[in-house]
# Entry
Amino acid sequence: MYVIGVLAAIAIPAYQDYTVRSNLTVAVNDSQHARDGLVSYYLANKQVPESLSAAGIDQSAPHGVTMSLNPKGMVLTVTSKGHSLVFTPKRDSQGNITWACSGGPGVRPAQLPPPCR
# Structure
């Protein structure tokens, strides 16, 4: 019985991290079009859009993923099943816009998908 308890104490948190990481990986993929659309809008208009809809981007994506834009800094928050990722744009040395990804509130490092580590 003791061995089963120890195994459960290890396996359950690891499985929960895996489940959150899987959902957030889907969110990264399902929100790629939004990040691409924001970059295109910014390059074409030389300004950050007021909202996702102003850039022609729907706030929802497949698999229940929702997105919101903070126009200050063009920060995109992507939420899937109660967990969030925050994408912040940065310019690289060639002037291209890339996205840095971090976990939202309550997302532990072990739960971050590979592109956000």
Remarks:
- The beta strands are 66-70, 75-80, 83-91, 97-103.
- The chain has a mean pLDDT of 91.
- The chain is about 35% helix and 25% strand.
